[in-house]
Amino acid sequence: MVLRTIPAEQLNRVHQTDCLAGMATLPGGCVDLVFADPPFNIGYKYDVYNDCQERDEYLQWSRQWIAAVHRVLKPDGTFWLAIGDDYAAELKIVSQELGFHCRSWVIWYYTFGVNCKQKFSRSHTHLFHFVKDPQRFTFRADDLDNRVYSARQLVYADNRSNPTGRLPDDTWILRPQDLQDCFTAEEDTWYFPRVAGTFKERAGFHGCQMPEQLLGRIIRVCSSEREMVLDPFSGSASTLVVAKKLGRNFVGFELSPEYAARGAERLAQVATGDRLDGAPEPLVSAPLTRHGKSLADAPGKRGRRKVVTTEAQPIPTDHELARSRALFEKGLVQAFRTVNDGYSLDRVVADPRLSAALSEQCRQLGLPGEPGSWNRQLFNLRKRGQLADIPTSRRTDIDWNACDRFLFASEIAWNLLVKDGAASLDDILCDPQLAAQFDQVAHRLAPGFEPLEYRWAALKLRKLARDARTRAALLTPNRFEQTQNAFEDAWNHAPEEAGVYLVESPDLEPKLYVGGALNLKDRFDVQFGREGAQKAWAPFCSKYGCSLESLTVRLFTSKSNSTDLVAYQSILVGRYKPLLNAEILAAV
């Protein structure tokens, strides 16, 4: 089978459609894990589905959707089926006839089950664990999140015990504390609270809601981060919510328009790395019934005692917080790897197109936060070496000569935003709103260039400033030539040579700006000679109390290269402390 991927427009959302029609749109072999909690055919009242089909009709329909699951699963994929007593045996056989192999038959036990008049009350659900290939499948047995403490550890404090614990039993219990004579601590069984009406994770619009901790165990054990999880019967979207929290990709299908819409709303409220609702520890999530609250204890209440159970909200453990952080960081790295197109992180963040693609990828992965925080976190990850294995073979073809005409505009925009509260150039470029303001200022001073060019020029200037400040200690600036009016003489008589210049006014102290250019004529044409240049400089004159007519330029030419020019600029920025230069240039 040729493996294919699910189109991006179908990813990480719940689709309002019949599951057979929905799965028919997916390529074969594109899903890693399917969890299905189909209608049990027991007469439950769904809003658009009749849960009371003829036996043969129900089994035929079940065969169709299970066959569709088999088709979309990868060769090493896994299929979990939740089903009640009435059809558990039949659907197990159907699944095996269609090519699935049963690895485990898990019982999820809970009290306060469905009350039945003519037979014992329902208090469990069957969970079948199927694989396509019994020799090749995902089962993350060594992951610490998928293991429990053994009896040697919990009861006997035996130093011979495996410090990583053991895999859980195949009986998952809801309230063993109410069955202490039957289920003892030595058995070390798991259980998950049924999602009662008083529980925080209760979605409120679907009566058959699976606990997040139960789904979390299945998804953690049988899939890895960024793999694909499918739920053909999305319902309250719990499977998709847990998949998103655990950093998996997901797709869900839901027949009911109302359930699909509410499921989408629920998905929008969670992010990768969020804790699963419900407590994984039995005695935390459900205290002994005799210790629970009682309506009979309430003031003014008399009569039969009624136990009211509520869900405790445990404090996140260090391990849970570390796991959330790890999922978040893995998602960020994956997003960067997907969109970087061979470029460095600096280029991706500075390039509006690549930056937007990165933000969209982070949103698709369900990462918490917004573009500014994602970009800043990526810079932190780079400092820790966590992007080192991602190839950055492509260079950005914007050299110093290309930036020379408008470099002053990038520097001034950088300076103004820092004075307005931005912490640094990285802070500006990481935040899309600040970056847009940067572009606007630079464009006003030197129109006709692309946002990437303005941003990249500032990055190049910052990089060169490190060497320039060191070199500044070895250089002595030349004498400035005579003063010329900025808008009348300077741009018209500037030499086509490299040099350094000082913009000032007799009405203003300190100086306004110190610049260096490889071609003073080209620089002055943009800075002072073009149409609209005076209008661009008027706000600075108004702000600092000088007139446009009073602006003058003094310059000296030099045969220097770009590093020497920035070094001269650095000396003069340190000496005059001009109002519009980036402070990072100042020589110490």
Q: Describe the global form.
A: elongated
In the sheet with the most strands, the strands line up as: 1-8-7-2-3-5-4-6
| Separation of the first and last Cα atoms | 65 Å
Q: Tell me about the biggest sheet?
A: 8 strands, mixed
The tally of strands reads 14
Low-confidence stretches: 150-156, 174-190, 196-206, 281-298, 301-310
**What is the residue-averaged pLDDT?**
84
The number of helical runs is 21
| Rg from alpha-carbon coordinates | 33 Å
**Helix coverage percent of residues?**
25-40%
CATH level 3 topology of the largest domain: Rossmann fold
CATH class of the largest domain: Alpha Beta
- What CATH architecture of the largest domain would you give? 3-Layer(aba) Sandwich
Number of domains: 3
Superfamily (CATH H level) name of the largest domain: Vaccinia Virus protein VP39
Beta-strand proportion: 5-15%
Helix-and-strand structural type? alpha/beta
Tell me what the structure shows.
Mean pLDDT is 84; it is low at 150-156, 174-190, 196-206, 281-298 and 301-310. The chain has helices at 19-24, 55-72, 85-97, 151-156, 212-222, 238-245, 257-268, 282-285, 318-339, 345-350, 352-364, 371-383, 400-403, 407-419, 425-430, 432-445, 451-471, 486-493, 520-529, 533-544, 562-576; strands spanning 13-16, 31-36, 73-83, 101-114, 122-131, 171-173, 228-231, 249-254, 293-294, 307-308, 484-485, 499-504, 513-517, 552-557. The strands form 3 sheets. An 8-stranded mixed beta sheet has the order 1-8-7-2-3-5-4-6. Strands 11-14-12-13 form a 4-stranded antiparallel beta sheet. A two-stranded antiparallel sheet has the order 9-10. With 588 residues, the chain is an alpha/beta fold. β12 and β13 form a beta hairpin. It folds into 3 domains: 10-285, Rossmann fold, CATH 3.40.50.150; 318-383; 402-585, GIY-YIG endonuclease (3-Layer(aba) Sandwich). The chain contains 21 helices and 14 strands.
